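On clarity, I found the account of how folds are encoded harder to follow than it need be. What matters is that the chain and its backbone geometry are given together, residue for residue. I therefore recommend that a typical entry be quoted early in the introduction. An entry of this sort, consisting of the sequence and the corresponding backbone structure tokens, reads as follows:
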Amino acid sequence: MKKAIVLFLSVFVVIGCAEKLIEKPNNLIPKEKMIAILKDIAILNAARSTNTASLKENGIEPTEYIFEKYAIDSITYVDSDRYYASQPSEYVSIYETVEALLVTGKDDAEKRKKLNDSLNLVKRKKEQAKDSLNIIRKAPQSQSPK
């Protein structure tokens, strides 16, 4: 009898865990597109928290921008987000990918900044050298005795 109860509970748990909490919506955003959307949302939220004035000056409303860029509406986004959230391993995978993309983007931006800083330094040194040569050329030449 004990084995029958354990078997029944095991089957019940397996069926219960396999049951989908939320049905797949008809307008589900594909995983790769969802990753891109979440990455852009993270970047825009960072921009909004650090430089709101710049976004306002350029007429950018982050949420509207995302919906226009990806040709989606708020309901499609919410339905897709809720569906992926109902699948914890899938949701974690999505957010880990987003995080990796953000870290890579940050690293690339830092490399570009260092390169630009180096190029600007070389440019400034070149301009200083030109200025020095111009000063030397404009200086009165001393007359050598004949």
